[in-house]
Specification:
Length: 387
């Protein structure tokens, strides 16, 4: 194994009715004024926002509300939040939502904590946040894994760049994960979340250099759990067990556990994020659209692992077949599963047009942890194959 550190100090509070104790929890930490940050309206429709406000009121905790975070959260909203927190002397941010709301909260937290630096500089890796307001989470959608991650992804509408960065400053202090809160997530968003979880695992599983037995076996376990639960939830959105498995898998797929001791790839996310920035398509759909063309492109360079993936995760029989045939069968099984869940299988399905190809290529950051270090020309080929 390569050397590593693992440090993920987020208090995870999992299960039915856990969101009801949010007021008590915040009081326990001694915070006095909370920014409750949320999205476009689902938390109002489900009544969750009212429940959260009541829970804070019962404990005598003050709060201000800031809703309207859009999927693919934008910098201007974070700036609004920073300003509001300063004005209202907020000392804690509670994100009630999915990855977008959590990331917007993290960005606000860094902005308030570092008043002398423009927060976008952190995303461009031109500055490093020194401190941040503490952030807590009530998770309503299992996907991004931001509830236990050090990462924060924001789109700057001024230049169209979507950029993420890692910092311990904004890792959530606690995350309340009640699978029942995800019952109302529609089939489209559930599918997007499920494939995001799969890709967070695969970005680590398929990587250059030594494989790490324990880490890769844990990854295979996560993959099998999410494949199975994804199918169940697609049929029955209120299956508590399956929703639970998806929620807990989402957290562990991203919190770097399945990256320990090895390199990581992340090229599916890099191309997907570039496509997301020009189309504004949902994150998960950009990943499903580019993942298979990318994996088929690098198949020969990582053949032993793609063969193992087919056998261990998709239970493809190797009898009488070449390794390449087995590996291809594994990717075909993945494709069939994605189609079953109704995911986008091409970039054109999510609104990309031929004239966007160059922007997607230009916006793709090339990383070096995958089986092949791609050239811009090869990225162009993969993007064209994904159309
Ligand atoms: O805005 P509302 O009305 O709340 O609706 C949301 C939104 O439209 C809806 N939703 C959420 N919970 C719901 C619900 N609808 C009904 N019932 C509920 N309980 O779902 C829609 C999507 O929400 P969003 O937060 O955008 O989804 P997700 O959690 O997939 O987050 C995506 C964002 O996370 C980033 C992505 O790039 C993207 O911007 N990522 C963040 C990561 C991180 N910080 O660690 C890692 C990931 O790889 C990812 O890049
Ligand atoms: Zn993702």
């Amino acid at each position: 194994m390569e050397n590593f550190e693992f440090y993920a100090p987020t208090r995870m509070i999992f299960g039915k009715d856990t969101h009801l104790k949010v007021g008590k929890l915040i009081r326990e930490y001694g915070f006095k004024k909370v920014l409750i940050h949320f999205g476009g309206g689902s938390v109002k429709r489900t009544g969750l926002l009212d429940t959260v406000c009541r829970s804070l009121e019962e404990e005598g905790i003050g709060y201000v509300l800031l809703g309207g975070v859009q999927a693919n959260p934008v910098l201007s909203m974070a700036r609004k939040g920073i300003e509001l927190c300063r004005r209202e002397q907020v000392d804690f941010i509670l994100a009630v939502g999915g990855g977008s709301v959590i990331d917007s909260s993290k960005c606000i937290a860094d902005g308030v904590g570092n008043p002398d630096v423009d927060v976008w500089k952190f995303h461009m890796k031109e500055a490093v946040p020194k401190k941040a307001l503490p952030v807590g989470v009530i998770l309503t959608l299992a996907a991004a894994g931001s509830e236990m991650s050090a990462s924060c992804v924001i789109t700057n509408e001024e230049n169209g760049l979507k950029r993420g960065f890692n910092s311990v400053t904004h890792r959530p202090l606690f995350s309340i994960c009640n699978p029942e809160l995800t019952y109302t997530v529609n089939a489209f968003q559930t599918g997007c979340g499920t494939v995001d979880i799969m890709m967070h695992t695969l970005e680590r599983y398929f990587s250059l250099g030594h494989d790490t037995s324990l880490t890769d076996r844990m990854a295979e376990g996560l993959l099998k759990a999410v494949i199975e639960a994804g199918r169940i939830v697609h049929e029955n959105p209120e299956d508590y067990e399956a929703r639970s498995n998806i929620m807990w898998t989402a957290t562990w797929a991203l919190n770097t556990l399945v990256a320990k001791g090895k390199k990581t790839d992340w090229m599916v996310h890099m191309i997907g994020q570039a496509a997301g920035a020009v189309t504004d398509a949902t994150h998960g759909m950009t990943l499903s659209a580019v993942s298979l063309p990318y994996y088929r492109f690098i198949l020969d360079a990582g053949l032993p692992k793609f063969t193992r993936f087919a056998k261990n995760v998709w239970e493809v029989s190797a009898d009488g077949k070449s390794d390449r045939e087995v590996a291809e069968e594994g990717l075909s099984a993945m494709e069939a599963w994605m189609r079953e869940l109704g995911l986008a299988m091409s970039l054109s399905e999510i609104g990309a047009t031929e004239d966007m190809i160059e922007d997607i290529v230009k916006g793709t950051i090339i990383l070096k942890g995958g089986y092949r270090v791609l050239t811009k020309e090869e990225i162009r080929e993969i993007v064209k194959m994904s159309m």
